[in-house]
């Protein structure tokens, strides 16, 4: 399969919004609904005030499916646990610029391990914080909610930051994806796409939709 470029729309349902009593069936449902990637929200109860799942769950999903695994590490020490997520089968590993690690070193390790490297910033974090790393990433994740929980409302004040990121990328001749995550549905996806984002993470609006395929298509067409 030809990998998508930053000009292609990518839909990445977030497993956090799935029914955890039947994870396998939920992954299959997302694939059949047309998901391009599966977004996996790892939370450590320290970087964010919630705990979700870790390498064993990701390993199981990897062993039974061949969908691209977009792993979002909302953890304080991604450097300490990185190898576990690589071994579990992550395709993209996204770490937070706000976490307690040497960002450049972690990004380099992710790529040397054969994964794609993503860098995330929270709504309150200015784009200047990630500027030094833009030539070392495959994806920039602009959080559109404060991380930790699904089902929150989209924060439109992040839109100018998405525009700034797209401008910097194009000025520097870079090609990283711009991913948005939190409160994304067709309406907010349209706003984010207009600002320059191409990877749409959606939890509640897809896994909790009456018709998941229709919800994925609506975000794709937004
Ligand atoms: C929040 C996570 C998001 C969240 C998205 O910390 O990073 O991926 O699960 O969920 P919705 O789409 O319901 O806002
Ligand atoms: Zn996420």
Describe this structure in words.
The chain has 222 residues and is α/β, with parallel strands linked by helices. The protein has a single domain, classed as Aldolase class I (TIM Barrel). It has 8 helices and 8 strands, in the order βαβαβαβαββαβαβαα. The protein has an 8-stranded parallel beta sheet. Helix 2 runs parallel beside helix 3 and helix 6 runs parallel beside helix 8. The longest helix is centred in the last third of the chain and has 13 residues. The mean pLDDT is 98. D-xylitol-5-phosphate binds next to strand 2, strand 3, strand 8 and helix 7.
Defining key terms:
222 residues, binds zinc ion, 8 strands, TIM Barrel, binds D-xylitol-5-phosphate
In short:
The chain is an alpha/beta fold and 222 residues long.
Instruction: List the bound ligands.
Output: D-xylitol-5-phosphate, zinc ion
Helix content: 25-40%
Averaged pLDDT: 98
Give the end-to-end Cα distance, rounded to a whole number of Å.
24 Å
